[in-house]
Design goal:
The protein is mostly helical. The protein contains 6 helices and no strands.
Length: 121
């Protein structure tokens, strides 16, 4: 019973926040999104995660990635860069984002071929 009350209150709070965001304009939506992300635990973030290839355009993909980096900064400030990359890759694998994973693998090649570096003496 207590869990139902807490969940209902959380849903009402999110609904009120969303309604308020719609009423006050785009500039403040980002601030409200930060508040929502700050309260979002790992499981909730995982549940709402979408594969980049399912998003309509580059702007939506960029916004989704920005949400991820904001969420990590707010919830896991102690994570280093490698941990952030590993968690992102884990989300992509868990949600079967095959196109994005293939793009990441293809871009993992060295920027310069070994022949571009002269041998050391």
């Amino acid at each position: 019973m207590r869990l139902a009350v807490v969940l209902t209150a959380a849903l009402l709070s999110l609904a009120a926040t969303a309604a308020h965001a719609a009423a006050i304009g785009d500039a403040d939506k980002a601030d409200i999104d930060v508040l929502i992300l700050a309260d979002m635990d790992d499981a909730s973030f995982d549940a709402q995660f979408q594969c980049p290839e399912t998003l309509a355009n580059a702007d939506e993909r960029e916004e989704a990635f920005e949400r991820y980096t904001t969420w990590v900064t707010l919830r896991h400030a102690d994570w280093n860069f490698r941990k952030r990359l590993d968690v992102r890759a884990g989300l992509l694998r868990r949600h079967a984002c095959t196109t994005t994973l293939a793009n990441v693998s293809a871009s993992a090649l060295p920027a310069f071929p070994a022949s571009a570096y002269p041998p050391r003496k």
